[in-house]
C-alpha cells in the first residue's frame, strides 16, 4: 500500500500491508516464536481507508488478542494519508489491564515504549487482530512484523548508496582535491575494495544487479529505457530472483529503503519489488538529499532497539550538480588553485556536490553514535555508477543527456568504477585479516559478501558474485574477479586485467564525437590496458588477435536471450541465398555457422547474402532478441527466387502457417528443437524461448502430439 504523504516533496511511503475490512479479523500463527524467549514485539504501521464520506479519512477500533486474552486496544482516526507506527508487546498483562504508556514524535507517529516490567514467557500460539468501524473504514497494517529481542550475535547492516559517485572523486580514491574528509576517515577503519566495477552504467541495471547478484537483463529487465513493461516484470518475478532484502528479512531483520529512486518500486511502471518491508521515496530534486538524511535519522531513533537492514540512497552528486554555496566555496578555498582552474564549471560543481554529500554522511554517522549504533553496525558505502566528466571520452548518442556530463552511454572506467567500503562493527574488528583488496571486483559480489559477513546462508550456485567474507576473515576464498561484465543502454562490455572490450547492439552503434560531430560507426571498442590504461586508443581495427580473444570472452559471458534459429539445408549445387529478417523484439546479436555478406543491419532488421557450396553442410543462423517477442517477418531468396520454409512446433510450411501465426504468434515458440527441424528439406525457422518460456508440462507434450496428428490428417504436415 502506498500513501502520498507529502505533496511539497513528492513523498510516497510504500509498505507491505495486510488489509482488514470493517468487522474483519486477521489471525497470525506464532508457532515459530520460541516460548523461552521474552521481549517479542508486534510492530506495524496503521493507515485508514475512508468510505468516501463523513469528511475524514477513516475511523475505527483496533484490538489485539493473544490466544484468548485481549492485550491491546486503540481507537484510530486519521484525516489525511499517513502511516502511524505502533509497537505492541506480545505478552499477557500481569494485572489484566490494557494500559500502555504512549509518546508522540515529531512525525505524529504514536510509539508504545518498551517496558522493563517482568514479562510472561508462556508459549503463545495465535495473535488475533480485530478491526471494527461504524463508518465502514478499512484498515491497512503496513510492514507487520514480529520483532524478537535482538540477538547480540547479529548486527545491523546499513547500506548507503551514493548516486553517480566516481571512485577517483574521493580524496582517498585518488582525487587531488579535499572532497571527502569524512569518508577518508571511515576508510581507515574499514575494508576497502580499491578497484570495484559496477555491473551497469546507469542506475536501474546496476542496482538490480547488486541487490540480486545477477545481471539485470538476465532477470528479464531491459537495460535501455526507464520503463519496465508488464512483460518484463512478469518475467522478472517468474525467475524468482534471490534478493538481499529478502535474505535479511528471512533472518528476522526489519528491512527498509529510504531513497529518491523509483526503480525499486513496482507500481511506478519503471521498477520492481525486491522485498523491502517499507520504502520511503522522496521525489523532489535538489531538496531530496537533506530530507532523505532527516528520514534516516528518524529511522535510527525508531529502530535503535531492533535488528535492521537499511538501504539509504542519496541522489547527490547526480546531475544537475547544484552544491550548496557553503560547501562549494569551502572546497574551492581548500584546493590547489592551479588545479582547480583546470576544471570546467560542471566538473567543479560535481566535486562540490561530493563535498556536500560527505558532510551529510558526517551527520548520519553522528546520529548513529548518539543512538549507540555506530559501533554495532556494518556500515557499507558504495555507488551505482560513476560519471564520465571527460571530454577525451565524449561520444554522443541520443538517449538521456550529453555524455560528457552524464552516464549510461559509455563503459569507460570513470563511468563504471565506484567506491566500495565496509566498516565492521567493533566486536568484529579483531577477526578482520584482510582490509584491502587491490585487484578488480564487481558489485555482483555485494550481496554474497554482506550475507557472508553476517553468517547468512544462501542457495549454492544461485548468486553470480563472490563471497569475499572468507578472505576478509582470513579463510581461503576468492579475492578478485578475472572477468567482469557490465551492461549499458544497448551496449555491453567485459573487463579483464589485460583488456576492456565494448560492444554496441546493432542499430545503436553510430556515435558522434560531439553533439555537432559527424556520425560514424563504432560497434566495437578494444583497449589494451597494459599499454593504454586510460583507454584512449581503440585497437579493435588493428589488433585482431586480441579482438578475437575479447569477442570470445564476451560471448562466454553474453546475456541470456530468446533466440530465432533458422536452419538452411545444404544445396545439391552451388546456391546463393538472401535472408531478410525482421524481429520485433530487437536484435541483441546474431551468429552464423558459415561466411556471409551483411547487406543491411539495424536494430530490428538484417539482410544477409549467403553462398552455399555444392556438397557442403547445413548452415544455422541464430538471432538473439533484445526483448522476448516472437513476432517476425522473413523472406528467403534462393538464386533470386522466393524459397518456402517451415516454421514453429510442427514444421508447417509458412504459406499454410501464416494464418495460425496471425492469431497465435507463440506458435513459433518452444524450448526444444521442433518436429522435423533437423531433417527438413527446406529452411526451417523457430523461436527458442529457453530464456523466457515456461517448461512444457507432460499434458502439453501429449496435447501437442495429438495436435500434430490432426494437422497431418488435414494435410498440413507431410512425412
TrEMBL record:
Superkingdom field: Bacteria
Question: What CDD domains does this protein map onto?
Answer: sulfatase_like
Q: Which InterPro entries match?
A: Alkaline_phosphatase_core_sf, GAG_Ulvan_Degrading_Sulfatases, Sulfatase_N
Tell me, what's a Pfam family for it? Sulfatase
**What SUPFAM superfamilies does the record tag this protein with?**
Alkaline phosphatase-like (SSF53649)
Ranges for domain Sulfatase N-terminal: 155-453
Tell me what this protein is called. Answer: Arylsulfatase
Native source organism of the sequence = Leptospira santarosai str. CBC1416
Amino acid at each position: 500500500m502506498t500513501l502520498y504523504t507529502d505533496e511539497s516533496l513528492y513523498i510516497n511511503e510504500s509498505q507491505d500491508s495486510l488489509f482488514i475490512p470493517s468487522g474483519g479479523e486477521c489471525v497470525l500463527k506464532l508457532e515459530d516464536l520460541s516460548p523461552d524467549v521474552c521481549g517479542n514485539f508486534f510492530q506495524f504501521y496503521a493507515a485508514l481507508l475512508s468510505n468516501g464520506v463523513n469528511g475524514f479519512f477513516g475511523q475505527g477500533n483496533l484490538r489485539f488478542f493473544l490466544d484468548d486474552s485481549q492485550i491491546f486496544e486503540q481507537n484510530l482516526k486519521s484525516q489525511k494519508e499517513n502511516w502511524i507506527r505502533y509497537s505492541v508487546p506480545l505478552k499477557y498483562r500481569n494485572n489484566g489491564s490494557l494500559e500502555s504508556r504512549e509518546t508522540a514524535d515529531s512525525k505524529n507517529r504514536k510509539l508504545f515504549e518498551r517496558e522493563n516490567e517482568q514479562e510472561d514467557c508462556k508459549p503463545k500460539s495465535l495473535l488475533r487482530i480485530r478491526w471494527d468501524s461504524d463508518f465502514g473504514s478499512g484498515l491497512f497494517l503496513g510492514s507487520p512484523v514480529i520483532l524478537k529481542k535482538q540477538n547480540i550475535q547479529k548486527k545491523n547492516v546499513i547500506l548507503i548508496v551514493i548516486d553517480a559517485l566516481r571512485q577517483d572523486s574521493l580524496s582517498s580514491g585518488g582525487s587531488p582535491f579535499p572532497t571527502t574528509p569524512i569518508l577518508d576517515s571511515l576508510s581507515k577503519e574499514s575494508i576497502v575494495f580499491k578497484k570495484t566495477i559496477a555491473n551497469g552504467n546507469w542506475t536501474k541495471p546496476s542496482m538490480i544487479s547488486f541487490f540480486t547478484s545477477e545481471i539485470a537483463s538476465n532477470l528479464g529487465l531491459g537495460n535501455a529505457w526507464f520503463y519496465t513493461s508488464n512483460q518484463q516484470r512478469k518475467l522478472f518475478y517468474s525467475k524468482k530472483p534471490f534478493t538481499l532484502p529478502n535474505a535479511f528479512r528471512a533472518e528476522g531483520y526489519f528491512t527498509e529503503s529510504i531513497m529518491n529512486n523509483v526503480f525499486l518500486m513496482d507500481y511506478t511502471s519503471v521498477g520492481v519489488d525486491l522485498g523491502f518491508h517499507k520504502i520511503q521515496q522522496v521525489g523532489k530534486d535538489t531538496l531530496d538529499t537533506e530530507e532523505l538524511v532527516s528520514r534516516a535519522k528518524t529511522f535510527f531513533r525508531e529502530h535503535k532497539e531492533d535488528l535492521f537492514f537499511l538501504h539509504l540512497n542519496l541522489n547527490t552528486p547526480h546531475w544537475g550538480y547544484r552544491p550548496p554555496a557553503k560547501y562549494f566555496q569551502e572546497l574551492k578555498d581548500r584546493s590547489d588553485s592551479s588545479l582547480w582552474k583546470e576544471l570546467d564549471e560542471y566538473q567543479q560543481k560535481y566535486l562540490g556536490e561530493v563535498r556536500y554529500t560527505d558532510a551529510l554522511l558526517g551527520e548520519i554517522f553522528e546520529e548513529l553514535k548518539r543512538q549507540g549504533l555506530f559501533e554495532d553496525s556494518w556500515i557499507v558505502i558504495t555507488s551505482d555508477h560513476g560519471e564520465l566528466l571527460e571530454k577525451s571520452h565524449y561520444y554522443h548518442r541520443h538517449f538521456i543527456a550529453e555524455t560528457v556530463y552524464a552516464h549510461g552511454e559509455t563503459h569507460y572506467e570513470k563511468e563504471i568504477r565506484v567506491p566500495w567500503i565496509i566498516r565492521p562493527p567493533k566486536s568484529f574488528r579483531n577477526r578482520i585479516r584482510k582490509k584491502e583488496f587491490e585487484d578488480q571486483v564487481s558489485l555482483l559480489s555485494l550481496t554474497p559478501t554482506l550475507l557472508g559477513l553476517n553468517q547468512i546462508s544462501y542457495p549454492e550456485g544461485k548468486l553470480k558474485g563472490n563471497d569475499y567474507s572468507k578472505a576478509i576473515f582470513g579463510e581461503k576464498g576468492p579475492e578478485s574477479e578475472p572477468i567482469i561484465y557490465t551492461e549499458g543502454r544497448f551496449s555491453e562490455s567485459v573487463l579483464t586485467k589485460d583488456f576492456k572490450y565494448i560492444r554496441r547492439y546493432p542499430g545503436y552503434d553510430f556515435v558522434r564525437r560531439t553533439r555537432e560531430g559527424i556520425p560514424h560507426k563504432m560497434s566495437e571498442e578494444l583497449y589494451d590496458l597494459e599499454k593504454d590504461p586510460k583507454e584512449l586508443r581503440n585497437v579493435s581495427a588493428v589488433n585482431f588477435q586480441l579482438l578475437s580473444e575479447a569477442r570470445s570472452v564476451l560471448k562466454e559471458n553474453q546475456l541470456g536471450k530468446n533466440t530465432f534459429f533458422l536452419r538452411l539445408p545444404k544445396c545439391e549445387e552451388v546456391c546463393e541465398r538472401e535472408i531478410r529478417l525482421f524481429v520485433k523484439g530487437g536484435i541483441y546479436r546474431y551468429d552464423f555457422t558459415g561466411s556471409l555478406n551483411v547487406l543491411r543491419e539495424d536494430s530490428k532488421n538484417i539482410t544477409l547474402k549467403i553462398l552455399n557450396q555444392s556438397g557442403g553442410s547445413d548452415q544455422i543462423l541464430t538471432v538473439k532478441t533484445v526483448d522476448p517477442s516472437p513476432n517476425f517477418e522473413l523472406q528467403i531468396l534462393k538464386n533470386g527466387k522466393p524459397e518456402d520454409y517451415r516454421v514453429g512446433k510442427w514444421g508447417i510450411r509458412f504459406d499454410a502457417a501464416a494464418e495460425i501465426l496471425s492469431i497465435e504468434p507463440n506458435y513459433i515458440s518452444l524450448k526444444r528443437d521442433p518436429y522435423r527441424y533437423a531433417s527438413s528439406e527446406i529452411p526451417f525457422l523457430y523461436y527458442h524461448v529457453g530464456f523466457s518460456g515456461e517448461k512444457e508440462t507432460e499434458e502439453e507434450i501429449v496435447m501437442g502430439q495429438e495436435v500434430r496428428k490432426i494437422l497431418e490428417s488435414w494435410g498440413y504436415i507431410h512425412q
